[in-house]
Design a protein that fits this description.
The chain is an alpha/beta fold and 661 residues long. Helices cover 21% and strands 22% of the residues. Strand 7 and strand 8 form a beta hairpin. Helix 12 packs across helix 13 (450-459).
């Protein structure tokens, strides 16, 4: 994939063909796969490594990067987020909101996507659902497309927007499914299944197949979603940790979506919770991690000595059946030369001796989906003592966790039951919750920019447990999302194209490199980290080298009044030892909605030899919003954390804040 500056009057595909033929002396008809037109001036081509190096060195070429594979990263969750069925809605506006889901497609016949009682799609919709086999859209699913530039399909793939994996269907249903009563998974999770914005429309862009998804297809999907005029884009996937904004398809696509006023919500990946494991870190997207809920589905294993183990799983043991327990390390398949150290993990399908396992419950020392145990004829499986998270999923046979922490690793099901509902977790499922919350906020504030919606969701989120997440904002981000609170944040940190361009300038990208992302001839006026630090978002992060030498850092921000006509906000700062933090001015007064005020945050102190230090700035008005300021030595992290809303007794007396922390 590459980018070129277009020649006036020449169609883009012809320009790209001529370039390949002239630069490499090759037949462009066999090497040129696709030319992009809407997102950026680039193309996809089959090239050798030598040809890649030759093109990369050319002055008119901004960037060349390989096509990579991207990986996919609710009856209870909405209530858990304090977002009940009775929440206030602007249904007429909500029904005009179109959410584009870039994923594995959708299964359109489900009750969740019925269009009974829905009006025709909004007039702004420019998408399509024509020419599809075995797939029909309606007034709920108003558009569907699929992409496969390499033309390679497996026997399990259906060449249409129809979902054969289930991932995309689940994501779409979390966002905008209709209300369906008595939903359950084999009796578990009984309740009303509903989306966050059930009146909204869904546009499907299938890029995920049985072997994953390709960058070239993702860029195609972004192009079409932008041209189709969706309002929100939800994409629960990523390629891994990649801080190079020039070589990531989701980064490029979401930037162009932002330019058109379309907000993109991405999953953070399931590689956490260690530092530096967050994917999709572009500041113009809302990146979402996973958390657990207060629902726990348990099963019991009673031993012969009357001792009972309680674990978490979706596959319960037969309460009336008695089975012998056997430790996997004691039953290695010696015929296959398997050692005890290998068999105890239950990972290899040939690792267990079927003669010793058949009809028994096998105890394994490593998380697995039960393939080896099932192959050996076991009736059940226990996974013991692993430092994994309890994650709801189905297994190949009845299974029980005895681990303690919750897992973020989402794995494919060995057997996907033919049922209407399922229970999934991980950042893939957190992402559509935030997408629906963004759509909900937009239904109340249609004119808000993606940055304003993002700010509202961040600054109204609820603080999560510092006891269980000692790394605080580096562990749980902004906190638990609060869709209802986000429609009335009081102040928002808004940002536009110029803000993000200056951020990229601060990352030392050249004007030529920026053209790949922006699509324009934009010149940087300033370079260096200071430019990036001033990106107008509700978080602050300073890379400081630990030493006994005092430092002084200042950054600028601006806030927009979206609350009361006349309002006053007073700065409240929680300062850690060895630091002095000031805000100038310390009071912001507004006389109209939409008014913008700027302030400067000044931090002085000594970092010493610690990993990270956190502090907070709160603007106290009719609600208390807290924006964490974080310092991290030598590395760049952008944290976005706020504490929950708290009321004041009197706005003119800042000392009378109740419910301090």
């Amino acid at each position: 994939m590459g980018d070129l500056n277009p020649s006036a009057g020449i169609p883009t595909p012809i320009l790209h063909s001529r370039f390949l033929e002239k630069a490499l002396h090759i037949n462009s008809s066999t090497s040129l796969i696709h030319s992009y037109k809407s997102i950026f001036n680039g193309f996809v081509a089959l090239l050798t490594n030598d040809e890649v190096h030759r093109i990369s060195a050319m002055e008119e070429v901004v960037s060349v990067f390989p096509n990579r594979k991207n990986h996919m990263h609710t009856t209870k969750s909405w209530d858990f987020l304090k977002f009940p069925q009775t929440v206030s809605r602007v249904k007429k506006v909500e029904s005009n909101i179109i959410v584009g889901v870039i994923d594995s497609g959708i299964w359109p016949e489900l009750d969740s996507f019925s269009d009974v009682g829905m009006r025709s799609p909004p007039s702004k919709w420019k998408g399509s659902c024509h020419g599809l086999r075995n797939f029909k859209c309606n007034n709920k699913i108003i558009g569907a497309r699929y992409y496969r530039r390499n033309g390679k399909f497996s026997q399990e793939d259906i060449i249409s927007p129809r979902d054969t994996i289930g991932h995309g269907t689940h994501v779409a249903s979390i966002i905008a499914r209709n209300l369906v009563s008595s939903a359950n998974f084999y009796g578990l999770g009984q309740g009303t299944a509903r989306g966050g914005v059930p009146s909204s429309r869904i546009a499907v862009y299938k890029v995920v197949w049985t072997d994953g998804s390709d960058d070239i297809d993702i860029i195609d999907a972004f192009e079409d979603a932008i041209k189709d005029r969706v309002d929100i884009i939800s994409i629960s996937m990523g390629t891994g940790i990649n801080a190079n904004y020039l070589k990531d398809s989701i980064t490029v696509g979401s930037f162009q979506a932002m330019r058109k006023g379309i907000m993109t919500i991405c999953s953070a990946g399931n590689g956490g919770p260690e530092h530096g494991t967050v994917e999709n870190i572009s500041p113009w997207v809302l990146t979402v991690a996973a958390s657990s809920t207060d629902r726990k589905i348990v099963t019991y294993l009673k031993l012969g000595n009357a001792q009972t183990f309680v674990g978490t799983t979706l596959n319960a043991f037969d309460e009336t059946n008695f089975s012998t327990l056997v430790y996997a390390g004691d039953v290695p398949n010696i015929r296959e030369m398997v050692s005890r150290n290998t068999s105890r993990l239950c990972l290899d399908t040939k690792s267990l001796d079927a003669r010793l396992v058949k009809g028994k419950i096998v105890i394994c020392d490593e998380y697995n989906v039960g393939d080896a145990a099932l192959t050996a004829g076991a009736t059940g499986m226990v996974i013991r003592g692993n430092d994994i998270a309890v994650d709801y999923r189905t297994f190949a046979l009845p299974a029980l966790f005895v681990g303690n922490r919750e897992s973020f690793e989402l794995m494919r099901y060995l057997v996907r039951p033919r049922v209407s509902y399922n229970i999934l977790s991980g950042t893939s499922m957190s992402c559509p919750h935030a997408s629906a919350a963004a759509a909900y906020v937009k239904s109340f504030h249609p004119s808000w920019s993606p940055a304003a919606i993002k700010s509202a969701l961040i600054t109204t989120a609820s603080e999560m447990s510092a006891r269980t997440t000692q790394s605080l904002e580096f562990g749980y981000g902004a906190g638990l999302i609060n869709p209802v609170g986000a429609i009335n944040p009081g102040l928002v940190y808004d940002a536009n194209l110029a803000d993000y361009v200056q951020f990229l300038c601060g990352q030392n990208y050249t004007n030529k490199q920026l053209s790949l992302i922006t699509g324009d001839k934009i010149a940087c006026t300033h370079y260096g980290s200071k430019t990036s630090l001033n990106l107008n978002m509700p978080s602050f992060s300073f890379p400081i080298v630990p030493s006994n030498t005092p430092f002084n850092v200042s950054v600028n921000r601006r806030v927009t009044n979206v609350g009361s006509l006349r309002s006053t906000y007073i700065a409240k700062i929680l300062t850690p030892p060895t630091f002095t933090i000031r805000v100038v001015p310390s009071t912001l007064s507004f006389t109209k909605v939409g008014e913008v005020k700027s302030f400067t945050l000044i931090v002085e102190g000594i970092m010493n030899h610690v990993a990270a230090v956190s502090a907070s700035l709160s603007w106290i008005g009719s609600t208390n919003k807290e924006y964490f300021i974080s310092w991290y030595p030598n590395k760049w992290y952008q944290s976005e954390v706020v504490r929950e809303e708290r009321k004041l007794k009197r706005l003119d007396d800042p000392s009378r804040i109740i419910d301090k922390f």
